[in-house]
Every structure is written in C-alpha cells, then in structure tokens.
Amino acid sequence: MATRTRPAAPYAGVRFDEFLWIWNAREGQDTPPLHLGIARWLQGREAIGQRRLLLMAFRGAGKSTILGQWCAWQLMRTPETRILVLGADDALAVKLVRNARRIVERHPLCALIRPSRAEEWAADRFSVNRAGAARDPSMLARGILANITGSRADIIIADDVEVPNTADTEGKREELRQRLGEAAFVLTPGGTMLFVGTPHAADSIYADPERPRPPGAGPPFLGDCARLVLPILDAAGNSRWPERFSAHDIAALRRRVGPAKFLSQMMLEPVNPEAARLDPAQLLRYPDELCLHAGNGGIELRIGEARMVSASCFWDPAFGAPGRGDASVLAALFADADGGYWLHRMLYLKHDPAAETNPGQQLCQQVADQVRLLHLPSVTIETNGIGRFLPGLLKQTLREGRLACAVRERVSSRAKDERIIAALEPVLAARALRVHESVFATRLIQEMRDYRPGARGLADDGLDALAGCLLAEPVRLPARGGAPARPDWRPGAGRYAAESGFDPLARG
Fold this sequence. Notes:
By secondary structure, the protein is α/β, with parallel strands linked by helices. 30% of the residues lie in helices and 19% in strands.
C-alpha cells in the first residue's frame, strides 16, 4: 500500500496572529484587538511549553471562530497533528470541527494540506494531507459522554463541556469531572489540553483557585491551568469589544437576561443558584380590570390606559386532594406594546372529590370560565404526567361553551428551577412585571419569598405556571366555524375592506 508523502511546511514559521489576520483580510473583515489578544496568548503559552490551558471569554466573543482558526493553524504547521474536540454533546463538538474544516478548505496558507481526494471529510471528522496512514483523523468531534476509549490525540479541546445539561446537579458535575479526567489517557505525552467555556454552576470546573470556594467543594478542577479570563467588561468597566457590544447594548443585555446569568455568562463569575431570590418588592401592583374598547373600526383590550397586544395562559394541572400535594394552577398574563407584562390572574384551582363530575371535567370547566372572562385566545397545558388527556377534554369543554380558543400542549424538558429563574429573574430585574392586586391574595407571593433553587418540599406551583406564561409564545388564530365570533382585541386580527377603485366593466 502506497503511503502519502509528507507535504512541505513552508509556512511553519507563521505566527497564529498572522494566520488569523490573513484569514480576516481575505474575508474582508477587521481583526478586533480582543481576537488578537487571544491569538497571541495561545501562541505565547505554546512557546513557553504550557500544555494545560483555560480560555474563558464572554458569550458572543467569537471563541469558536478563533478555535477553528487555531486548529487549522496547528494542522498547517504540523499536518500529522491529531485534534480531538469534546463538547457537551455531539452537535456542539461538530460545530467546531466543521468550522475548522471550512478554514482548511479556504485559507490560502492551507493549500498544501488540503487532500486531493477527501477520503475522510465528514462533518464530525476530517483528515488533511499528511505522511503515512494514521488511524485517527486529523480532527474528530465527540460529545463528552461518548466513548473515546482507543482514540489518541495530540491536542484535546474541551469546548463548552459545562452547560446546564451537564452541570445542573452535583451528580452531573461529578460525572463531568470523571469524563474529563479520563481524557488524559487519550492525550499523547507532551500533548495540549485546552479548556474553553463559561461557568454554569457555583462549583464550576472553571472556578478560580484564587477565589473562595463554596462550602463542601473540593479543590478547583482546573487549578493547574494557565488561565486567560476575558469578561465583557474590563477592570475599568469598559466593553472589551465596543464595536460589537456598546455600553447601551450591555445594559440592555443585563436587563434582558437578569443579573445571575449576566454574571456567569458575561462576567464569567460562577454563581450559586441557591443564592437566587425572587423579591416580591420588585412587582408593580395595579388595581385595574380588563376592559374592551370599541372604536376606530376595531376592538381594543386595555388595562387602565395601557393597550394589551398579546396574551398567554398557562395551566399546570394536578389532581391531588385539595390542600395536599401539587396545586393545579392557572396563570393568565398579558403584554403591552412597550414590552411590559401584566399578570392579571393566578388561580389555584380546586375540585370536589365527592362531586359526580370527574376532577378533570371540573378543572376544565374552571379554565373555560376564565377563557370567557379574560378574552383569552389560547391556553397552554403542561402535559407531563397526568396532563396528557386534558387537552382533548379542554377542547371539548370549550366547544360546548362555544368559545374560540386554541389549546396548546407543552412537555417540559428543562429542570423546573432553571425554567423559573430563566423566566422570572430578567423581568423582575427590569421591573417589567405588573401584578393585579388579586394575585397578592394568593400563595404566589409567599412562594416567591420562600423560593430557593434546589430546595425540597417548598411550594412552587404558582411560580412554575407564571414561568410557563412568560416563556410561552402568544398564538394568533382566527375564530373557527361553529363558534360565534367574539370580539378580537389583538392588533392585526379581524378582516378589513379596502377601496381599490377598480371597475371590472370599465374599459380603458
């Protein structure tokens, strides 16, 4: 079997920052100082022989772009290099390999390593033109939970292996550490291990050894790595990439994602989720009821002087005995044109176990009553567990009541604590959640005061229903046949007639 000849490497002396600049110039792009700084740090660590590296940069900093360039640069200089990319799952790892392959295909300095026949040129792996017939591809993508036994690599990149799906419980974080520890057996002697990511837990694998550790946490997992940490704001409070992230953009992002997520993903500070508090003092109270206004050829739904433009209603059902177990909660939320939210109703539904009507029918009738009273265009039902048969029963109840209302089903795959924090924290931080005074008489306010992510035995059914409303997309559906037309208050709904001035009998 003939072996391939080793390609000449006339560009082996090209620095990584030069390689990056050439690519950007070819693409008609500037090279931001942020990227040049990362490139020079990477090549500098290699020059002094540091082989365990940690790069942390804020979300949106272009880490994946730079890593793809770095991999192509390594292959250009030494085509026999084998690079293994580990991601939180296969899809995330494949993105980096695909990016590097694209650069090898197009970068002018990579012409000599582009194979004349792509024997191995797939999305999750590819091999460049190199000497001999190596068993492992030049680049290979694998999820962190995949089996990598038997592989060998000169460079391993652990790219965003810590995400909520791999780090939201203590057990998952321990398994992540074990998997990363096993990767050391794949790395060749003298190889490089590069970790890249942002923290998603207080006990993050990226934790700074110079900072206090959470109670009970062991030594920092990557305490022996050379570190480059680049939060979006520098020590003076200025944007590290002002052309892309202005001060106004950063402030808007902080309001949108909430303080905890901003700290972890943009300022790269591990945040303890158990420290989260949902402060009822951040709610804006209002007394006004819904009011339909007819005028200007249309219908408007108002709360006070504010016009509502969309609505979402979320039902988290339960059939436990009243007063025991999970509560069956219905939340109705409206939104105005300025992005403000109005939580108008929070109902803890009850049923009578001794009644002739079954509990499901009793609860569906209560939901239908609220659809009529609040002019709701849709209801979303969480169908995990006992809720599976309720959408059909609710649709039947709505038909019997001649109510034109869409029924949507949702299966929750995210952890409840993650849903609640992701939905409520940003709107509370922005003080964008108004709450009707009737809601203050429900258990929701106490749930907010008591809420501790990860705590057991605390009621959070109302918070979960409110999170469902905030995360749901409003549905805009016309009235269907068989039901009398109800006044539709949503902007853009209804039919319009326009005078065209066209006379089909007129002749020009």
